């Protein structure tokens, strides 16, 4: 079950990566996004470290505090039923953390020389 959640996260967006931190898998894209907590139990819980900042409506992100949110999976049926939502959370995170592209045509207007009289 944990491996399937990992696969969903990594396949959701090509910008997402993973590494080990504090003895567990950490997912990151432009900053730490989420990690497994309580991974020694029969259920899987994914903690989104700054989940409150993720833009969008995600009904299965639990939590009301100023920062962390959690997504819990009790069995493989939960993982499969939440795959689309988890994919959308990952994509929203990657978009939020992506460097902003400069908008052409925006900036200070050019000074035009005064017309000669």
Brief description of this entry?
The chain is of the alpha+beta class and 117 residues long.
Order of helices and strands: HEEEEEHH
Strand content: 15-25%
**Largest beta sheet: strand ordering:** 1-2-3-4-5
Sheet of most strands: 5 strands, antiparallel
Total count of strands: 5
Average the pLDDT over all residues and give the rounded result: 88
Total of domains: 1
Low-confidence stretches: none
Coarse shape = elongated
Structural class by SSE content: alpha+beta
Count of helices?
Answer: 3
**In angstroms, what is the radius of gyration?**
20 Å
The CA-CA distance between the termini, in Å, is 79 Å
Helix content: 25-40%
Written description of the protein model:
The model has no long low-confidence stretch (mean pLDDT 88). This protein is α+β, with helices and mostly antiparallel strands and 117 residues long. It is elongated. Strand 3 and strand 4 form a beta hairpin. 27% of the residues lie in helices and 22% in strands. It has helices at residues 2-12, 76-81, 83-97, and strands at 17-21, 24-28, 32-37, 44-48, 69-73. The protein has one domain (2-92).
């Amino acid at each position: 079950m944990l491996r399937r959640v990992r696969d969903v996260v990594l396949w959701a967006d090509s910008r997402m990566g993973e590494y080990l931190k504090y003895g567990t898998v950490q997912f990151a894209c432009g900053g730490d996004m989420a990690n497994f907590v309580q991974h020694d139990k029969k259920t899987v819980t994914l903690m989104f470290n700054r989940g409150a900042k993720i833009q969008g409506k995600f009904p299965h992100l639990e939590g009301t505090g100023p920062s962390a949110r959690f997504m819990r999976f009790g069995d493989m049926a939960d993982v499969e039923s939440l795959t689309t939502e988890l994919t959308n959370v990952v994509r929203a995170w990657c978009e939020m953390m992506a460097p902003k592209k400069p908008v052409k045509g925006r900036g200070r207007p050019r000074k035009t020389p005064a017309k000669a009289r």
